Amino acid sequence: MDIEELQTFVEVADAGGLTRAAQRLGIAKSIVSRRLLRLEADLGVQLLARTTRGAALTEAGATFRDHAARVVAEIEAARETISAEGELRGLLRVAAPLSFGPTNLAPILAELGRRHPQLRIHASYSDRKVDLIGEGYDCAIRVGFLEDSSLVAKLVGPICGKWVASPEYIKLNGSPETPEEFVTHECVMQGTETWRVIVGDKIKTMNVQGRFKADNGTALVSAALAGLGIAGLPADLILDHLASGALVEVMPNFPPPELGIYVIRPPGQNPSRKIRVLTDMLIECYGHYRQTA
Fold first, then answer.
1. How far apart are CA 78 and CA 65, in angstroms?
2. Which pTM does this prediction carry?
3. CA distance 142 to 281
4. pLDDT, tens only, 10-35
């Protein structure tokens, strides 16, 4: 048996099927199948019970999975130790937000790939919160306020946000002057009715309402431009619209709290060198990042 066979088995065990494991590894399903067959032949036991719905661990497979995962982790750690200043190798799977990732993060990932020709990078852009462990990601980059979880988070930089609305909306509905007036306005929201507002040296929570929700920042920009309500958005998404007058800032004396850019990874040992290098590049880019209109 070799390390690729062990790694492939762990991926199949965690993914629950050959197809999903092949997608995670970035290889053909036939290669996954051949590796598993060789591993089972070497061990002389059946590790997986194939079904029409995927692959389930046998009793022997469940026992062997933890041992195999530890071996794979130890070998990866050993490789990093002896090549601490050398090339990054292997596969780095990153999840990033669709509203922020393609424009802001994609160039950084591309530069990481340029610097390390032996590193394979698989990036997935979506505004949903992916299951890092269940879906096999090494890390995720998230923007906003973090919810409590068992995941490990590293702040790499700040982003300022603003409350904005279209001139047409303000002409018809007026502009709020205090946070309490939010409740009398239509608001476009990213799946939550709770907004945070800075009042003096405190953060106040406001319950707002509106008829338009979306899980994507670009979609919220479009709703605000169409006059559907007030939106709280990262400045990066709205700078051009503020400059053109298509959107105007409201309630500048009561801004939203500063957002954060975070690298999120599963709990466990120290982060791999691949994640550390990516984190350092993000800090270099965004560590002192401030956006203003």
1. 20
2. 0.69
3. 15
4. 888 887 888 888 887 878 989 999 99
